[in-house]
Amino acid sequence: MTTNRGRVLVVGGAGYIGSHMVKCLSSQGYIPVTLDNLSHGHADAVRFGELVVGDMGDRALLDRLLSKQHFKAVFHFASLIQVAESVRDPAAYYHNNFILTKQLLDALVDHGIDRFIFSSTAAVYGIPTTDLLTEDHPCHPINPYGRSKWMIEQLLQDYEVAYGLKSASLRYFNAAGADPDDRLGERHDPETHLIPRALRAAMGTGPALTINGTDYPTADGSCIRDYVHVGDLAEAHALALAHLLNGGHSCRLNLGTGHGYSVLEILDAIEHVAGSPVPRTVGPRRPGDPARLVADPTTAKRLLNWTPKRSDLAVILEDAWRWENLQHQSHAEPG
Questions:
Q1: With CB atoms 3.0 to 4.6 Å apart as the test, which of 55, 103, 222, 323 could cross-link to 185 if both were Cys?
Q2: Does residue 145 carry a catalytic annotation?
């Protein structure tokens, strides 16, 4: 029987990474409660603990929830995440990712909750000046998505000084893969991430993949990214929670593998897993996309004793391929 380690609130727990987080917390003996407005998440992805349907900007709802239940910490995954969309519609990103997050933090401070784990991003760095990004690399985000996240990181620093709110800002690179138990995976609508789009193109369940730019200053001209398994990301967040609960200091940490793959390398690997070609076209670069983003994960490994277990590219693609096939089969079955 698993020991009850207390309640934790997962804001955005019905989404891709948040739902994996809820599963991870439950497996470790925590009692997760999900708050999600279901604008991008899915109610059936919350397979563990209570789901409260509502918005993190609803102060009356937050007051009722935080007064009724004692939470040891809060995780925050409820952000808009599309770089190109943030360039087209910055107002939405500053409203959701900054203003509503500030309102959430204000509620936590007022209710005496002093531990916060924040889903940040490598986009805070902007254009890298080194092959591997360390946490002390200057932060000069080049798109509203990255700027909105960087603004919250700075806000958290100020809130700790003023109000004692301890935090872990986890800057992850490209989340990928699916739950190896086949319960959870990527279901964005629209889907903008490379791996599920390429898998669906290979399966014939989605359109041909558009490669956004083949003129970057990389070996094959396509963007290079660091892919980390979503289950490994969840494990890192749980370790960050333990770090804060054990009296650890606030931190900003990269979550990645230290190895980058280009878009064309990913497509080659997917064709091997799928056993079929990935239909593709070449389009222009997306606004706000740097050529290369690869983590130096040394600090997270040292501070949290975090070692990715499923982030080998072959494992990521096999898990994602199996998930996409299950989704296709479920949609193909007569209702």
A1: 323
A2: yes
